Amino acid sequence: MTTESGKLPTLFDLSPTELEHYRPERNEPSGFDNFWKTTLSEARDRRHKTLFVAVDSGLRTVEAWDVSFSGYSGQTIKGWFLLPARRNGRLPCVVEFLGYGDGRSSPVDRLLYSALGFAHLVMDNRGQGSGARPGDTPDLGADESPHYPGFMTRGILDPEHYFYRRIITDAVLALDAATDHEEVDPQRLVVAGMSQGGGLALAVAGLDPRPSGLISDVPFLCHYRRATEIADEQPYNEIARYCRVHRDRIEQVFETLAYFDGLNFAARAKSKALFSVGLMDEICPPSTVYAAFNHYLGPKRINAWPYNGHEGGGPHQDVERIGFLHDLWA
Questions:
Q1: Out of 105, 195, 271, 287, which one is annotated catalytic?
Q2: 13 belongs to the catalytic site
Q3: Active-site residue (options: 120, 271, 281, 287)
Q4: At what angle do helices 236-245 and 250-257 cross, to 10 degrees?
Q5: Closest by CA position to 14, among listed 304, 269, 323, 312
Q6: Tell me: the pLDDT tens digits for 113-141?
Q7: Of the listed 120, 223, 295, 310, which one is catalytic?
């Protein structure tokens, strides 16, 4: 990754040795578990039937469906569901979450997992999808109190109204949607994503015991306080810029963020996990990734890419993901 000026990123965080042992104290609210239990229960009380509508994607080896499923507060979330055209019996399923600003786009953008012989559900990001790829899901009922442009500070003064309460709930209920399809084996589920998607996958693994595996590449949404202190890139700097103006609300901001911190989800997650980190990542600083990894409760490994930024391992990490999935139920 290069910066806008064309400069390559440099090592700016802890040393590799320090990172391997970096396990900061977690800031966990006393009501963390009850908050999420209530949130998910309320969402499931409003859950409606998942709809799968076959689409002609022009692909010959992959079959595609347009998916509409029930997320936060019963609101409809869009997605894609992909299956290898040649299959025999129920398949393991990868439920994939997308990066910040990204949308579901077209089925042709996400072919790795179906090419491996897996079922694959891609969740659209509510309110996003005007960045690298277009999306189709509005963020209904969003808190429109003053916030810095972007998504990181929407409703940030109250965990009940914070943007990531809604999208994390969507992500957990995406597992329900995947298992609604008759071709999916509900005992073989994987959650996966990169950047924001990696943070969402980590949150799901911490909130739901069903996934057998987690793939969390260069995860976002982890160790917010440190991230805002050392990262000058978006999206973490949205929070820092908000705090620069709302000087009297800083502690309230971080009290809210504690309900959505990947460190607290990691401490509850038991799925077998593959992480990755770029040691020159100026968007999701390495120490924030290692903080989540070192608190992760289940079996885990991490691939560190020394000269890479937020792109992480790129196609080399794709190969690592493939190996991880092949070995998961071996």
A1: 195
A2: no
A3: 281
A4: 150
A5: 304
A6: 999 999 999 999 999 998 779 999 999 87
A7: 310
Q: Is the pLDDT assigned to residue 200 strictly greater than 50?
A: yes
To which H or E segment does residue 317 belong?
helix 314-328
Q: How far, in Å, CA of 245 to CA of 242, rounded?
A: 5
CB environment 28-49: b (16+ within 10 A), e (fewer): eeeebeebbeebbeebeeeeee
* Beta-bridge partner residues of 97: 193
Whether 68 is catalytic = no
Tell me if 95 sits within 8 A of 190, measured CB to CB. Answer: yes
Closest CA to 61 of 77, 42, 83: 83
Omega before residue 235 within 30° of 0, cis: yes
Which residues on neighbouring strands pair with residue 302, listed in sequence order?
Answer: 275
End-to-end CA distance of the chain: 35
pTM of the shown model: 0.96
Nearest to residue 180, comparing CAs of 41, 74, 64, 50?
Answer: 50
* 161 is a catalytic site residue: no
In the predicted structure, residue 306 carries a pLDDT above the cut 70: yes
Q: CA triplet 195, 198, 201: central angle to 5 degrees?
A: 155
Q: Is the pLDDT at 313 greater than 80, yes or no?
A: yes
Between 3.90.1150.10, 1.10.8.60, 3.40.50.150, 3.40.50.1820, what CATH number should domain 16-328 receive?
3.40.50.1820
Backbone angles phi, psi at 100, to 5 degrees: -60, 125
Q: Which of 153, 330, 129, 115 is nearest to 253 (CA)?
A: 153
- Residue 261 · residue 222 · CB < 8 Å: yes
pLDDT, one tens digit per residue, over 24-61 is 999 999 999 999 999 999 999 999 999 999 999 999 99
Tokens at 183, concatenated: 């071709």
